[in-house]
Amino acid sequence: MRPVTFGVQSETDHLRQVIVHTPGAEMEMVSPLDREALLFEDILFLSHARKEHELMCAVFEKVIGEENGVLQISTLLRESFDQEEARFRFVELLCEASHGSNLQAFEADLKRLSPDELCHFALTGVSPLKIEAQPIPNLMFMRDLAAVVGDHIVLSHAATSARARESIIINVVVHHHPSFADWSDHIIKLPKGVTFEGGDLLVASDDTVIIGNSERTSFGGLVSVARALFERTQIENVIMVSMPHERSCMHLDTVFTFASPDECVAFPPLIGLHGLNNVATLSRNGSDVSLAARMWETLHEALEHHMGHEMLFMPCGGADPLGQRREQWTDGANLFAVAPGVVLGYDRNERTFAEMAEQGYRVVTAEGFLTYHESSDFVPGEKMAIKLDGYELSRGRGGPRCMTMPIHRQSNG
């Protein structure tokens, strides 16, 4: 496996390396009785969900065009566990985070598990030991575990106990997997007591990021991320967006994503030319954050100011308010750009795709995209919206951006 590279200067540069998790055995361990505690709206039909996810990964592989561009977190974790130090660190962090459980009593036993057994336990909660632990079906939403900004990675602090193990998994992988060895000085860890999840951070440009203060990212987490980025990266501006703390818009990327350097898809009732106006900019002040933040009428206004050019906001769900709400619920605003003007979204969001077609996007199926490029390399250029089957994946309440953690993008300019 080739070493990883941290490098994300934009939401829409050409994708070169991405971490994902194709749903596995942990998904079949979600029951109707505990799905809400595990943050799931429904139970998924695993074989169909896997096929949909594998098709998405096939598109990524074609876009990237190199081996080891699509990395599975389960493989990275299992390879990390070849080192005793990684296994012990995982167990220690898990016991520390599992307040009120009986895991601490099994710490020594967990450390004696084989790499395969410990990896299976990490994902499913199942082991040869007499331990009751929950599965982690949300692992397929890789976006929330961390965010790469420039050449640094910001590790998450999960807002809910159901996702705490995922934060531990990414922590162990980036600190112990051999492919990450050259980047040990590029890991940003946040202080205890704050929450931050990667779905709330979007890299607008090489000097500007947008962070949502949401149900999952606290204000303290937002400011902690801003301080760290100002101190350790080239980021000059953090656009702060205060959002309703509601399940329906749990992260910023559930209501707003980039399609190209000057085009976005937004959910109009919250993000648009009108609507949500709790927007401010935190700017670098030496190595500190300027708390005398500049306020903006809308995110649109703030973004055009910091990007230095006009931005088109395409409405998720079209012009009809009911269509907007229906398609935001099925992740119509949660697009993932694999290149400038080339995005993936769930094909059920027809009105969103129609809006994009009016702006010059060619709408194709994932299968059609792969067939067209079967014997040729992908070269960015034409604007394209790729429709992905998501009948099962969408039941988990997360779209293509939620399911991807890009760690390297390359500008073709």
User: For the record, what CATH class applies?
Assistant: Alpha Beta
Query: How do the SSEs run, as a string of H and E?
Result: EHEHHHHEEHEEEHEEEEEEHEHEEHEHEE
According to CATH, the homologous superfamily is L-arginine/glycine Amidinotransferase, Chain A
Share of helix, binned:
25-40%
CATH architecture: 5-stranded Propeller
Number of strands: 19
Number of domains: 1
Biggest β-sheet strands, sense, barrel: 6 strands, mixed
The fraction of residues assigned to DSSP E strands is: 15-25%
Gyration radius (Cα, Å) is: 20 Å
Sum this structure up briefly.
The protein is α/β, with parallel strands linked by helices. The protein has eleven helices and 19 strands. Strand 6 and strand 7 form a beta hairpin.
Descriptive account of the structure:
With 413 residues, this protein is of the alpha/beta class. The protein has a single domain, classed as L-arginine/glycine Amidinotransferase, Chain A, CATH 3.75.10.10. The chain contains eleven helices and 19 strands. The strands form five sheets. Strands 6, 7, 8, 11, 12 and 13 form a six-stranded mixed sheet that branches. The two termini are 28 Å apart. The mean pLDDT is 90.
Strand and helix layout:
Blueprint (H helix, E strand, L loop, with lengths): L13 E7 L25 H19 L5 E3 H8 L3 H14 L9 H5 L3 H10 L21 E4 L2 E4 L8 H13 L10 E2 L12 E3 L4 E6 L5 H14 L4 E6 L13 E5 L2 E4 L12 E7 L2 E2 L4 E3 L2 H9 L4 E4 L5 H9 L6 E4 L2 E5 L3 H9 L3 E4 H7 L11 E5 L16 E6 L3
Parallel strand pairs: 1-2, 4-5, 7-8, 10-14, 16-18, 17-18
Antiparallel strand pairs: 1-19, 3-4, 6-7, 8-11, 9-10, 11-12, 11-13, 15-16
Helix pairs in contact: 1-11, 2-5, 2-6, 3-6
